[in-house]
Amino acid sequence: MSILLASRREASAPWSGPAATLFLSATLVTFIAAASAPTPLYRLYQEHWAFSPAVLTLIFAVYAAGLLAALLTVGSLSDHVGRRPVLLGAIALEAVAMGLFVAADSTVGLIVARTLQGFATGAATSALSAALLDSDRVHGPLINSLVNPIGMAVGALATSALVVLAPWPMRTVYVVLLAVLAIEAVLVRRLAETVAPRPGAWRSLWPSIAVPPQARRMLAAITPINVAVWALGGFYMSLAPSLLREATGSASPFLGGAIVATLTLSGAGAMPLLRRLAAPRILTLGTTILVPGLAIVLAGVHLHLVAPIFIGTAVAGFGWIAAFLGTLRSLLPLAAPNERAGLLAAYYIESYLAMSVPAILAGILARSIGLIATTDIYGGALIALAITALAVAAVTAHRRDR
Prior knowledge:
The chain is mostly helical and 402 residues long. The chain folds into 2 domains: 14-194, Growth Hormone, Chain: A; 207-402, Growth Hormone, Chain: A (Up-down Bundle). It is 80% helix and 0% strand. It contains 18 helices and no strands. The N and C termini lie far apart (76 Å). Residues 1-11 have low confidence and may be disordered. Keywords: Cell membrane, Membrane, Transmembrane, Transmembrane helix, Transport. Pfam families: MFS_1. It is a multi-pass membrane protein. It is found in: Cell membrane. The chain crosses the membrane at residues 50-74, 86-104, 116-134, 146-166, 172-188, 218-239, 251-270, 282-303, 309-332, 344-365, 377-397.
């Protein structure tokens, strides 16, 4: 009897340690996968509702706007009210967004759903990332870095598979995500709360944006490559599936998800190795590799061949991941603990503007000159930004040596 009671107490005990880390990682993957799930569907939405590439990129960009709004307002709320309440609220908002996707019958419905989804994802990722660090301080940073590319790949590939294999192709993935979110909402109650409530919750909702003086030069130096990295992600998450079809003539639903997965996963496997390198070396390596990767993609587009586009995407994806890590590791150590929130806010504003504004401009331009010509201009601009970043890094290193 005592053994049975002990096993029941153990089964009902709050999750902490490895169990909590596993659940938090899976939940974060769910949110990131849901964020990339619409990408392979954009072409289907265009076919059914006949909207332009400019509208398509707007549907994508409102997600970034909602996510940025959440990071700037409720990003630190879980430090005051606890991780579990914020996470439960984010799951509830995400579930509503999934319901709106299921019910959507026009672009207006997609825009509303995508905006709400962005806010829910921003609230969830801030709480989940902090909770992962609470549960595993040794591996938490690495898990946070790996979950994002893995989640993006899972969402894109799962959607592509469901379009082919399941009924209701434009809605099935959201029904599946709703079911997963319902399970996670129940299981959140099993998590051990790692934060004691403390005052200042309402004050924390007011955005704090400030770049410390000692970080301003570094922020300016990394801006060209940071803009290039986030603009590349914005293009792939919005227009890449349409570009594949126009450049190669292939209508395979798998290609749209596969191209996103190739970008996000190509550098994820090397991330543990990259993290051992010094920040300037990671940044230079990523920036250097990004240039030939983009050039190969552009060549594949003009050759109308799928293989070079995917090869170039894999090469660019490695540079994309490395440059992303390098920018963060170069910038964040320059801020004192009480300055990090303001610096991160400035960094995220720059990053999500770079993710959304160029994509919207590309959608508008594609309506006038076509998607392939727009891709040439877009890719050329990203290559120019990367070369500028390398030049700035060389000048900075020369000054430091002198």
